[in-house]
Design a protein that fits this description.
single chain; 209 residues; mainly alpha; Hypothetical protein af1432; 2 domains; 10 helices
């Protein structure tokens, strides 16, 4: 008998633990929320919820190979996973893989399918203060050599490049609450004094011994 009688049992035993080794912004609470949000968005569309679940669960597994091409690595990990054929056809696995590849916010093109749009939208997770904290966490994890002012400049640059008016972030699902939250985040980015106060709070918390 299979040690994984269900897709969910397999993911919980073998896939989600991989996130424990990633930076704080991409550990298990992140993927668990992406899964919840993706399944909530999937309810608005005629899609296979198990395919959505798999794409969400695997979407950041490629971070084990670095951030720049992690979305492509995630797609390859899905295609090469030895257990997924228990639940999906080769065509379904390819759709799941493409959805994971399409989730990255900086991609210039739109996702290839509704599955990619759902995963990309669920991954946005636009809670203004959470975005600021995750930006600080990522900077501390990947650029430990720079000082507090360097992290502040990096935080400003990242937020303007990705989230401000004209930034590269795109929203794909109209049923998502992300549009309203993005407007709130943009107002926060425009209020640099308030933004600096939040940065200082989160930086102190994340660097406390």
């Amino acid at each position: 008998m299979s040690p994984f009688p269900s897709l969910h049992a397999y993911v919980e035993a073998e896939i989600l633990p991989r996130y424990d080794a990633f930076d704080k912004a991409h550990r298990r609470p992140h993927v668990e929320r992406v899964i919840r949000d993706a399944l909530a968005l999937a309810a608005f569309y005629p899609v296979d919820p198990e395919m959505v679940y798999a794409a969400a669960a695997f979407h950041d597994t490629g971070l084990c190979e670095g951030r720049e091409t992690h979305h492509l690595a995630s797609g390859r990990i899905i295609r090469e996973d030895p257990e997924l054929p228990r639940w999906f056809t080769p065509e379904q696995i390819e759709t799941v893989a493409r959805a994971a590849e399409d989730h990255r916010a900086s991609l210039a093109s739109a996702p290839h399918s509704i599955y990619g749009r759902i995963i990309a939208e669920a991954d946005r997770q636009i809670e203004p203060e959470t975005i600021i904290r995750r930006t600080v966490q990522y900077g501390l994890a990947h650029y430990p050599e720079i000082d507090r002012e360097g992290h502040w400049r990096r935080t400003l640059e990242h937020l303007h490049e990705k989230y401000a008016e004209g930034g590269y972030l795109r929203l794909w699902i109209p049923e998502s609450p992300n549009a309203e939250k993005l407007a709130q985040l943009r107002a926060l980015i425009a209020d640099e004094a308030r933004l600096r106060t939040l940065f200082e709070t989160f930086f102190a918390e994340e660097t406390a011994p």
